[in-house]
Design brief:
Blueprint (H helix, E strand, L loop, with lengths): L13 E3 L5 E3 L3 H22 L3 H21 L14 H15 L9 E2 L4 H26 L5 H24 L5 E2 L8
Antiparallel strand pairs: 1-2, 3-4
Helix pairs in contact: 1-2, 1-4, 3-5, 4-5
Length: 187
């Protein structure tokens, strides 16, 4: 028996949560886990580009956690569902990685412009998509509870991690960090 990817059940602008509940495709819950899925795709691209096996391993771990977050967000909040969980140790891993990278990085004295190398640029794109995912999940938290607060904390820490990783990649790849120099107002 073959499996078909298309079901035609979403042809009228609705999709199903795990548990069967149907929602419009533009519902904040769908937007939230859809943005997490988009972020996961960018993390996958970044994982393909980073130069070290350690970075690839950490990004694979991040992708696993993003699938966990997606499964939580895609589950019917009105039903008791058994879903994988995010643990404080997942956040601690990101913090440990940032602390380790910070030891090698020059102090940050200015805002820096994204870019300098395509890998660094993809890292910054992932960071900004992560921030958007975080904003969507915060909106869901306030408007359509329940959402576990640890998901918000994880996404917040992940965007910080991606910023520091972008700086580390600039160093690893010999890319110049370009400081933002604000234009002075005309008098």
């Amino acid at each position: 028996m073959s499996f078909k990817i298309y079901t035609k059940t979403g042809d009228k602008g609705e999709t199903g949560l795990f548990g069967g509940k149907r929602l419009p495709k533009n519902h904040i819950r769908i937007e939230s886990y859809g943005t997490v899925d988009e972020l996961n795709s960018y993390i996958g691209m970044l994982r393909d580009l980073v130069p070290t096996d350690h970075q690839k391993t950490i990004l694979k771990e991040v992708q696993d956690r993003l699938f966990t977050i997606g499964s939580n967000l895609a589950s019917d909040p009105d039903k008791e569902m058994i879903t994988p969980d995010i643990n404080p140790s997942d956040i601690e891993l990101l913090e440990q990685e940032m602390d380790q990278m910070d030891q090698n990085l020059p102090p940050l004295k200015n805002f820096i412009l994204p870019g300098g190398h395509s890998t660094v640029s993809f890292c910054h794109i992932a960071r900004t998509v992560c921030r958007r995912a975080e904003r969507m999940v915060v909106a869901l938290f306030h408007n359509e509870p329940p959402v576990e607060e640890i998901i918000i904390r994880y996404l917040n820490r992940l965007s910080d991690y991606l910023f520091v990783l972008g700086r580390q990649l600039s160093l690893d790849l010999g890319a110049e960090e370009i400081p933002w120099t604000p234009r002075k107002k005309s008098e």
